[in-house]
Amino acid sequence: MELKLLSLSICLDSLPTDVLLTLFKYLDRPSLGSVAQVCSRFRDISYSDCLWIQASRKALASNQLDPASLSRSQKIFSARDKVRLGKAWIQGHTFESLVVVQNTKFMPRLQLEAKRLWVAWGNRIWCHPRLPDGGIAKTTSRLLRGHADDSSKFVVSDGMVVSGGQDRSLCARNADSGRFLFAKRYCHGGEISAVDVTASGAVIITGSRDKNVLVWNIREDPDRDALHPVEVHSIWVEDRVWSVAANDLGLLAVGTAGTGGVPPLRLYDLASGTNVLDMGTELKNGAGMLDMAWLSSSTFLACGYDTFTRLWDTRCRTYVRSWEEPYDDSVYCLATDKVNCLVTGTARSGRVRIWDMRSSGFLYMKHASPARQGYGQTSPVYSMAMDAANLYVALDQSLNHFGFSGQDHKRQRRRRF
């Protein structure tokens, strides 16, 4: 009888894969990890995407749900890897490396692509190839010039590198070859402080300290085999322009200095140039918006001088969420995965703060290492860029990399310019 019962018993490892997957769905993550250590078959099954897909959609920063955020990532991660990376973002498990050091102080700007990281130092824009593990190559593949003074803001979009500078000029180059596409000199009465590209590269928006926003249509010049910007709208904003951003429906958000009774956020119809909505009139005087990013066709993030980062909704005509910098510092820049992760850079001490937008409090903060250690050697965070596994932070004399994949980049040699 005992032998008969033993012959009728079924071992767990003899069950079909689909049955095991059904059973494993009821296990929590620690239990799945324990099951994965039983044998190679259980490990392969417990690593299946179908067991991790729901958790991966909620992963902080690494969910890769937004197409623009996905395009900046070097690869598409498995569902389990997304969960692992999301846990690293939540707990702050990261390796920091100081990858570029400058001898002169600048106000650098960053733009990130899947294979390249663009950095504007002064009047030059450097292109750094990205290494497979998220690090930065020791040598640059491209060096772009064209401005007589510092480049204030630039955008890499649709195969173009479009920049505006303190010399009041607007320049565009081919992102792959570096070839000049056009250079428009003295197109504003002051420094070009904001640039954006929309409509698949057919429209460029520039904002300036001269209180004007210009909308340019890009047309081909067959005689010179080049592009030619044609001004189609000139918008008088009534205050200095710090930031501009256009969404996919042709709505243009303009961040002003917010002084003299002018709203810090003004929205315009891109096709006609007419003002359709003013937001932030309830904020204090001088609550200028230094950086912004659209999350959807109706919501966008904006941060600035009044220490807050806010989620604005055009349907409500006001902000619906807010996150305050605890140390009462201005928020110079932001980065986001456009789903649940928000990273803010402040005006002092190289302070970077990580937020989960599903909650009101911050998760933790990091201090980006300055180029030189010592008393008083601190810098604002001027620009940031992120993908699913990496965060890049630009200070006045250094470019810092925070890697969340578990790779230590501290051994990478610094490059001095």
Q: Could you characterize what this model shows?
A:
It is a single chain. The chain is mainly beta and 417 residues long. 13% of the residues lie in helices and 41% in strands. The protein has helices at 2-8, 17-24, 29-36, 40-46, 53-57, 67-72, 79-91; strands at 95-101, 109-112, 116-121, 124-129, 142-144, 151-157, 160-165, 170-174, 180-184, 192-198, 203-208, 212-221, 226-236, 241-246, 251-256, 265-269, 275-279, 289-294, 299-304, 308-313, 318-324, 331-336, 341-346, 351-356, 362-367, 383-386, 390-394, 398-403, 415-416. It has a 5-stranded mixed β-sheet with strand order 26-27-28-1-29, with no helix packed on it. A 4-stranded antiparallel β-sheet has the order 2-3-4-5, with no helix packed on it. The protein has a 4-stranded antiparallel β-sheet with strand order 6-7-8-9, with no helix packed on it. A hairpin with a 5-residue loop joins strand 24 (351-356) and strand 25 (362-367). The longest helix is centred in the N-terminal third of the chain and has 13 residues, at 79-91.
